[in-house]
Amino acid sequence: MNNDRIQQLLRFVQEQPEDPFNVYALAMEYRGEDPGQALHYFEKLLTEHPGYLATYYHAAELYEEMGDRPKASMLYQRGLELARDQQNQKTFDELNRAYRRFLDEED
């Protein structure tokens, strides 16, 4: 986790709150070392920018790692629907593979 980068991203979020990429980048920066803080920013994205497709894969994966399988499943499904609606085949395929792996782990 790079504190300088985090401070820069926090400034970007304050200066451009309408830009979901800055919040996403902040969540990803926290992802490895502070999952709780990453989750905070993923939730912010899901609430304030629900159409930001990149959020769903990583948020679902984080919820899965934290043991909240129902929330992870819901996010994978919602991401698949959004990818289909946005006609984003590449992201749909990535989410679909991750979701199938997730379901296989239940068996």
From TrEMBL:
Keyword Ubl conjugation attached: no
Keyword vocabulary terms for this entry: TPR repeat
SUPFAM superfamilies: TPR-like (SSF48452)
Record bears the keyword Cell cycle: no
TPR repeats: 53-86
InterPro entries registered for this protein in UniProt: TPR-like_helical_dom_sf, TPR_rpt
The organism's place on the tree of life at top rank: Bacteria
Protein name: Tetratricopeptide repeat protein
